[in-house]
Amino acid sequence: MAKIRLVCFDFDGTLIDTAPDLIRATNLYLKSKGLEPLPEARIRGEIGMGLRRLILDVYPGDLDEDGRKRVEAEFLQVYEREFLTSPAPFEGALEFLQNFDGEIAIVSNKRMRFILPILQKLELDRLPWVKIVGGDTYPNMKPHPEPFLAAIQAAGVSPEETLIVGDGHPDVRGALAIESRCVAVSFGYTPVEELMDLGAWSRIDSFLNCPINQFNIVTCGNPQIDLSGLLTLHNILFLRRLECLADGSHHSLFLLAYSPALSAPAKATTPFRWVFGSI
């Protein structure tokens, strides 16, 4: 399996926690229309699929296409006043982006007029993004292959060398469509179990102390196991290959214990953490 050379990140709920501003804007808009506010959990769960659908679901009456466009435009006007209030990178995201030894891109369904100011506010626009794709950059949005393939082409890599990191159904479905691997984040706005059931290849629970080449460590699936992408061989404490037969399909599973801070061979008392990946 090819080494990861490009990581495409979703935006909302993956790199940046934008939920507080989205939740506030949604309920401010509903209040302006005399409608009851929605629970935060319900709004948060719809962010990955687009809040337009949620607002239209609770909006009274049957709206024609012009009416739906009007409601969407009104909501975006409210969000435009709120979206820069409190966006924040998820813990460890900046360090991961600064240290990843490869290309990085953003592939989001969020409009570019919101993505770019948030990046500027958080000074993330200074990072060497090979491509930033918003929901209005191309005719098709995620999970359509088009936005992912645009980032892949800009990086000069193949889908097999690309990792999709996200917290929503469009990320997993898009990765499956182009035959790339998708890592689901558990701290986003969609239950990570849903994403794993949908076909996500693996999961991460935090960017904090995430080993730079973790995604390559757990993809060594051929008989000649290649660990050359590891920062140092000394931090491997345990590596086991497991074979699993499920529903007639064969998968190679790896269980790895490592200690990122080690600079010498491990001792029995060395703290370690686990990485689990499937191919």
Examine the secondary-structure arrangement and name the CATH architecture of the largest domain. Answer: 3-Layer(aba) Sandwich
Number of helices: 10
Q: How helical, in percent, are the residues?
A: 25-40%
Structural class: alpha/beta
Strand content: 15-25%
Please provide the ordered H/E string of secondary-structure elements. Answer: EEHHHHEHEHEHEHEHEHEEE
Radius of gyration: 20 Å
Cα shape: globular
The CATH topology of the largest domain is given as: Rossmann fold
Question: Biggest sheet, in brief?
Answer: 6 strands, parallel
CATH H-tier superfamily of the largest domain: HAD superfamily/HAD-like
How do the strands of the widest beta sheet line up side by side? 5-4-1-6-7-8
User: How many structural domains are formed by the residues?
Assistant: 3
User: Quick check: average pLDDT?
Assistant: 80
Gap between N and C termini, in Å?
Answer: 9 Å
How is this structure best described in words?
The protein is α/β, with parallel strands linked by helices. It has 3 domains: 6-16 and 89-210, HAD superfamily/HAD-like (Rossmann fold, 3-Layer(aba) Sandwich); 19-82; 217-278, no CATH class. 34% of the residues lie in helices and 21% in strands. The chain contains 10 helices and 11 strands. The protein has helices at 19-32, 40-46, 51-58, 65-82, 93-99, 112-121, 145-155, 169-178, 192-198, 214-217, and strands spanning 6-9, 16-17, 88-89, 103-107, 129-133, 162-166, 181-185, 202-204, 236-246, 249-258, 273-278. The strands form 3 sheets. Strands 5-4-1-6-7-8 form a 6-stranded parallel beta sheet. The longest helix has 18 residues, at 65-82.
